[in-house]
Design a protein that fits this description.
144 residues, 5-stranded antiparallel β-sheet, single chain, Aldehyde Oxidoreductase, domain 3
Length: 144
């Protein structure tokens, strides 16, 4: 589990969970999209209090592994200024079977968005910037 400043290497992340007993690896890659709430986006600043964010990220993964003991998980979240299309978060969860790996992966991303202290400020095409509540969409997804 790591907070990183450089582009995310998905293949390296997958390699961290791969082993001979793995039959399924579920991945999630969150990328910067070109719009949000009807506004054109040109990029995002991600900021974190890294020691706290890393500890909470480790707790989230530990909870996933307690719920799905056979699953192996690896997670990285990028901080800094990202442009449209760049990966901000990547998760790889592996298991002998697909259901546990997929369930753990979904748990990790939904829980991470609510609990890990990482903040984002969107840059809009019109030149303005605005902090965005990352829990708004995550909370709606968890409750639906």
């Amino acid at each position: 589990m790591a907070i990183v400043h450089e582009p995310i290497d998905l293949l390296a992340l997958v390699a961290r969970v791969q082993d001979a007993g793995v039959g399924a690896i579920s991945t999630f890659v969150g990328t910067v999209r070109e719009h949000n709430d009807g506004r054109a986006v040109s990029g995002i600043d991600y900021e974190a209090y890294e020691p706290m964010a890393t500890r909470e990220l480790e707790r989230v993964v530990a909870e996933a592994q307690a719920q799905w003991p056979s699953v192996r998980c690896a997670v990285v979240h990028r901080v800094g200024t990202l442009t449209v299309g760049e990966a901000s978060v990547a998760i790889a969860c592996a298991d002998a079977r697909r259901a546990p790996s997929m369930d753990a992966m979904r748990f990790v991303i939904e829980t991470l968005k609510v609990r890990v202290p990482i903040w984002k400020r969107e840059h809009y095409v019109d030149g303005t910037r605005e902090w965005v509540d990352p829990t708004r969409a995550a909370t709606a997804a968890v409750s639906s």
